[in-house]
Amino acid sequence: MATKVDLGQILQDLENTNTLEELSAVAERLRDALKVEHLTYHWVDGAGDQYGYTTYSDAWDERYREKNYHRIDPVILGCFQRFHPVDWKSLDWSGKVAKAFLLDAQNHGVGNQGYSIPIRGPNGQFALFTVNHSCDDQTWKNFVSAYGRDLILVAHYINRKALEFEKDRQPDCPRSLSPREIDAITLLALGYSRAQVAHSLTISEHTLRVYIESARSKLGAHNTTHAIATALSRGLIVV
Questions:
Q1: Taking every annotated instance into account, which residue ranges of this chain make up the domain HTH luxR-type (predicted)?
Q2: Distance (Å, rounded) from C-alpha 169 to C-alpha 176?
Q3: Over the stretch 121-163, which tens digit does the pLDDT of each residue have?
Q4: pLDDT at residue 123 in the model
């Protein structure tokens, strides 16, 4: 892995790209300069449509989409709840589903180390920029320490350019949640049970369920956990 790389030229090249193909070429040069195995930009909208660029194998890209892995991927689920870069080691991989996903990923050439940067837009747009590699923990720690800040800047350059090339991918303005829906989702995000939320809001659990289902519909969420993550990512609730 690289220990010292001047990313100034990479940023200039990104600024000068005019097509998705040119952007992909710059991304490959960045991967090679950093001497990492993989680099990916991954965008998922509320309807589950996916878009982006990756140096992962075509087999893994196809399998990921076929299995709808974005719904259970610990990296995506974890980054939905965060605003800062995420080292994969800080995520919860202990569950049976997560372990099976990780094994499948590694069997398809995904490295054991990853650093993902969540990116959010003004209309709820959510994307991830990830650098992935296979190495020991100390080597990876040194790499992140050396390039973590620069990668944040690169991530936002790539995101801005990708959306310029794919304007139709930008989501519509999200529907607003009602004050009661915000209260309900906020308390759930804080770890309250449904019974505790209903008691705090002085409403029945049946009424609470109506608020939650309405919020899920507006957010295009698959379940309550997804609704909470989406509301957090869009800045609709603060915890």
A1: 170-235
A2: 20
A3: 655 567 899 999 999 999 999 999 999 988 988 888 888 887 7
A4: 56
Beta strands in the chain (DSSP E): 38-44, 50-54, 86-87, 113-120, 126-133
* Rounded distance between C-alpha atoms, residue 39 and residue 175, angstroms: 33
CA separation for the pair 131, 87 (Å, rounded): 10
Lowest mean pLDDT of 42-51, 83-92, 211-220, name the range.
42-51
CB 228 within 8 A of CB 188: yes
Greater confidence, 13 or 51?
13
Domains of the chain are 8-169 (3.30.450.80), 179-233 (1.10.10.10)
Contacts of 197 (CB under 8 A, 6+ apart): 184, 187, 188, 208
* Cα separations in angstroms, 129 against 35, 38, 78, 186, 220: 17, 11, 14, 27, 23
